[in-house]
Amino acid sequence: MSEGGWDEIAAWRDFRLGETGDLWHRALIDPTLLDVVGDVRGLDLLDLGCGNGYLSRRFARAGARVVGIDRSAPTLAFARRRERAAPLGVRFQVRDAARLTGTSGQSFDLVVANMTLMDIRHAAAAVREVARVLRPEGRFVFSISHPCFDVDTESTWVTELALYEEKIWRKVRRYREEREIDVPWKISETKKRWTKSYHRTLATYARYLREAGLAIVRLEEPAPLPEILEKSSQGRMIAEIPLHLVVEARPFARPPAAAAARSGGLNAPASRTPGRSHRGAVPRSGSPRRKRGTGSARRGSTPGS
Fold first, then answer.
1. What is the pLDDT of residue 302?
2. Does residue 255 register a pLDDT over 70?
């Protein structure tokens, strides 16, 4: 298996995302991300962890000069195939986000990382590279699984029926324990594949940004659009409790070399958590009826969702 496992699901991801993104992206994550990004006309834009390039191509159609990078060569093969079929001038490159060698400093007005930063092992180094390639007035906009509410196998939905009223809760534990995770993707009714992800606290992400010389200027928690409320059983739950974050950060000062070297956190995860599963709760005698489910865009879905 390739590092991270992304090569093995490249074809499935391309089929699922297409040119507009799947249900979770187009009706939950992307609208807020695009609102924070704003007008990209005339900008030099880096799409960090671009996947099959659907968002890179959207930015190009909106007038940006786009470079899309991803570590998975099979994934980028699909991005390049789409670019050849309908050229928009996007340059797709196989690159490691934590080592943007060959890219000079202050090359981009905007760096976007859509649902990728939590999948990068050396995320602190990737953030430092983002800060290095950003121009002084540039911006870094990224979306991630919500560190507070989407905590791999340690977070779950609970619904209770009490006095004829259904209540929705989000149960979370082990939030402070940063770790490597095996994330399952259901690519068919009978097959699963796994990729690597990394749970980090919200404070860790903030520290990565601060030590790279970036300040958070905007933070949003995407709410579901009508499409996901209609088509996903989790829509009404996410309307109450967010599972994603969108963050905008800007340079405030370049940190001294010593501070950058001290950037810590989850760069070398010490443990691995097995793949996620859905568990049913057993009602206790005399207590309200409860149902549990994990619920996250990171767990994958059948193609076409």
1. 40
2. no
